[in-house]
What does this fold into?
Amino acid sequence: MTKALREPRRHLAAEIAAAILEGAYRPGEWLRQIDLEETFAAKRFDVRGALSELVARGMVTHVANRGYRVFVPDLNIVREMLQIRSLLEVEAITQALPHIGPTELGRIKAAQQAFEDAVARGSKADQANTNAAFHDEIYRYASNRSLAQLIVEIRNRARPGPIALWPSHADLQRSAAHHTEIVAAIEARDIDALVAAVRRHIVESGANYPPRERDDNAPVD
It folds into this structure.
């Protein structure tokens, strides 16, 4: 006689974290426990435990007498990290350009098109992933391989949320336009225009900045 198999233990914190990563909850957004209970069909005790775990992981902030909200990065730190990104990515693009021929340019254009398709009809996760893939496809041709890896690490640290989230569709379209400028400069072999386009993209992309702090009156759970 065999014993009934036990169902695997549910990891509610991982489920909520995945929802945050997918952009279901934006940085600074309040997480009402009653809403989480309904959304994830979970008990209040389990929701509290999951939120405490996410606080320890740095994805959620607990505000005394107010509740829980998705972590918002410090704007000064974000700006400092963007300055570092600009230095690294300009160096990477300068190294990469001599190694980008017709075949490599074709791959970059394909990555550019994938992002544009995601802007038109993809999910937030698709948009974030194809945007990162576009840049990674360019920087992979830099002669310093460690530089390309460092850029990914810095980009993740500078990110104002678990995934890149654009405040509006207009911001998404602006990023797509920046990509077009970058590709055009690569194709023209114009290093000055290329450096300017990369810097402009980093500084002006809406996905690189956290949302403004809101003074929402979060209900006490």
